[in-house]
Amino acid sequence: MNVPAFLRRQRGSAVVEMAIVAPVAFLLLIGVIEYSILFYTTLAMQYAVREGARYAITGRTDKDPATSNQQRYLAVIQAIKSNSMGMYDSVNPVISVNGTSYASSSAYSATMFGNAGDIVVLRLDCTWKLATPIVAAFFPNGEYKFTVAATMQNEAF
After folding, report:
1. Which residues of the chain fall below pLDDT 70?
2. Cα–Cα nearest to 36, from 150, 155, 128
3. Which of 15, 16, 53, 156 gives a 20 to 30 Å CA spacing to 95?
4. Who contacts 97 (Cβ-Cβ below 8 Å, separation ≥6)?
5. What is the domain extent for residue 17?
6. Cα-Cα-Cα-Cα dihedral sign, residues 60, 66, 70, 75
7. Sign, CA torsion 134/138/144/146
8. Where is the TadE-like domain positioned along the sequence (predicted)?
């Protein structure tokens, strides 16, 4: 069978076009996925800090993993961790309560959440390390930094 000349010249053109378009399409797809993960992480951490603040205002300590000498601040951190959908350790949060930053667990104090009737402002400063170089180019040091917070009043306890 004799193939017309114009068809012979177009053989393989689809492969060449796909080779040109595919990297751009995949980069866009991966970028959309990474932005989706950023928004999910932000929402998950906002939910976690809200639930942590709700737990903090009760004055309870039962969520502290220690069986004896349970601490309120460890119980609140555990409440945040358990409600963060597994994102807590990924975002390396710095906890602030009423404007005082607690960068390490050694800085936590028994009175950091105040007494009955006090206003508690619980804030987490989070950092998410981006994986996609194209998306990371739009953020300083390839990190997405965000803050989530909740404000509530302590109950009578």
Report:
1. 1, 5-9
2. 128
3. 156
4. 112, 113, 120, 121, 122, 123
5. 5-153
6. negative
7. negative
8. 12-54
